[in-house]
């Protein structure tokens, strides 16, 4: 991971999980699909994504678990690439030897999404708008086809097929990873033994669609975006940085902001009342984190991820149609302070799943981080996860 980005995240108290006493070491691998047809009907040549695994696939390939990642992440769900890494993967608290998702028992895999945000991270491998179109020799830009959560799942499915995995003991993920979990359970019900969506619900509702549009707006307003045609030119990193600033604030909760920053000034002796260049600490912290993250991200990839999330309904069609396709028991984990996927939407999805005759359990995470509690405080749910895997 980019050191400056990690430092900015640490400063903003964002997506850093505690290191475990026993370090799990991993490596990024590459999966290539010679020809991939998207749900929109476009065929892409030479699609590549990165992926990681933890643990060993057993002889009959029956011990596999799939972890799908959230909007701003990649497949680095657990462990470290080397001992000296500043922090492990985002769900290291629950994935590893002897942990609730025990890599001594399970083969755990995770896959970089198409159009992954982190194009400047050497540990991210993804095909998307910034990639070279083999037919033109130039970056795709906005000529890249619109992709969906189902497309992300289809890439994962093809990798699973290549590995000989016919059924996952668990498919799980947080936020956008939870959307992929719902999609797996609805699209391939016989290949999912258990589904664990964390901090999300079964479709993008109007509120989420609108918020995702707000996330994307600063990019479109940046003149350097140039309708997506900026490769080889100055990228729209000012707009991207502001977009990432909005995401960071939205993914947290007001309790976190107030407890962490209060009304502290950014610089001692510089009262914000004395000028527009004098600011509060929360403003400059979010600005610095967004700017650092923008340097290793791509604006068009951000917009494509926004579109994929906006389009999501589990299984396609309507949510009621989608949940009726699911066979697996479901463990829904969420935060009551989540501002991205509020609890009412989680409760509605739970009701629809139960009405469809499915076994559903809900677990609430406690904390002040809102949406990010699903990453930072996931260890709170380890008892429920352990029981769920034992059933």
Describe this structure in words.
This protein has 391 residues and is an alpha/beta fold. Helices cover 34% and strands 15% of the residues. Strands 1-2-6-3-9-10-11-12 form an eight-stranded mixed sheet, sandwiched between helices. Strands 4-5 form a two-stranded parallel sheet. Strand 7 (132-133) and strand 8 form a beta hairpin. The radius of gyration is 20 Å and the shape is globular. The two termini are 37 Å apart. Residues 1-20 have low confidence and may be disordered.
- Uncertain segments are 1-20
Global structural class: alpha/beta
Describe the biggest sheet?
A: 8 strands, mixed
Name the helix and strand elements from N-terminus to C-terminus, one letter apiece. Answer: HEEEEEEEEHEHEHHHHHHEHEHH
Instruction: Give the helix level as a range of percent.
Output: 25-40%
> What is the terminal-to-terminal distance?
37 Å
Number of helices: 12
Q: What is the CA-based Rg, rounded?
A: 20 Å
**Widest sheet: strand ordering:** 1-2-6-3-9-10-11-12
Number of strands: 12
Cα shape: globular
List the helices and strands and how they pair.
Blueprint: H1 3-11, E1 29-37, E2 43-54, E3 64-68, E4 95-96, E5 101-102, E6 107-111, E7 132-133, E8 138-139, H2 149-163, E9 170-174, H3 176-187, E10 195-198, H4 206-221, H5 237-251, H6 254-260, H7 281-294, H8 299-310, H9 319-323, E11 330-334, H10 343-355, E12 360-364, H11 373-376, H12 382-390
Parallel strand pairs: 3-6, 3-9, 4-5, 9-10, 10-11, 11-12
Antiparallel strand pairs: 1-2, 2-6, 7-8
């Amino acid at each position: 991971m980019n050191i400056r980005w990690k430092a900015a995240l640490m400063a903003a108290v964002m997506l850093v999980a505690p290191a475990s006493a026993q370090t799990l070491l991993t490596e990024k691998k590459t999966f290539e699909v010679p020809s991939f047809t998207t749900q929109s009907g476009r065929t892409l040549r030479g699609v590549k994504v990165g992926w990681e695994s933890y643990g060993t696939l057993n002889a009959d390939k029956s011990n596999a678990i799939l972890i799908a990642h959230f909007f701003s992440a990649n497949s680095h769900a657990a462990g470290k690439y080397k001992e000296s890494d500043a922090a492990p993967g985002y769900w290291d608290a629950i994935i590893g030897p002897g942990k609730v998702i025990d890599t001594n028992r399970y083969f755990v895999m995770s896959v970089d999404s198409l159009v992954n945000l982190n194009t400047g991270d050497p540990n991210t491998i993804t095909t998307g708008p910034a990639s070279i179109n083999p037919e033109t020799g130039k970056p795709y830009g906005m000529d890249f086809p619109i992709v969906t959560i189902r497309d992300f799942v289809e890439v994962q499915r093809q990798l699973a097929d290549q590995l000989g995995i016919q059924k996952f003991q668990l498919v799980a993920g947080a936020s956008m990873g939870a959307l992929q979990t719902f999609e797996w359970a609805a699209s391939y019900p016989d290949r999912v033994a258990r589904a664990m969506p964390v901090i999300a619900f079964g479709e993008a509702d109007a509120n989420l669609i609108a918020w995702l549009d707000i996330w994307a707006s600063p990019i479109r307003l940046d003149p350097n975006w140039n309708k997506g045609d900026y490769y080889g030119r100055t990228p729209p990193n000012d707009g991207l940085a502001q977009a990432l600033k909005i995401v960071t604030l939205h993914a947290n909760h007001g309790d976190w902001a107030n407890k962490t920053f209060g009304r502290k000034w950014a610089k001692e002796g510089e009262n914000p009342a004395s000028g527009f260049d004098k600011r509060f600490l929360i403003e400059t912290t979010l600005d610095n984190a967004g700017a650092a993250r923008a340097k290793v991200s791509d604006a068009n990839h951000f917009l494509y991820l926004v579109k994929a999330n906006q389009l999501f309904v589990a299984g396609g069609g309507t949510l009621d149609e989608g949940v009726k396709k699911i066979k697996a028991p479901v463990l829904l984990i969420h935060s009551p302070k989540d501002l991205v996927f509020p609890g009412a939407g989680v409760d509605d999805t739970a009701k629809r799943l139960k009405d469809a005759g499915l076994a559903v359990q809900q677990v609430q995470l406690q904390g002040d981080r809102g949406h990010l509690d699903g990453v930072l405080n996931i260890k709170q749910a380890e008892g429920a996860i352990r029981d769920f895997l034992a059933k």
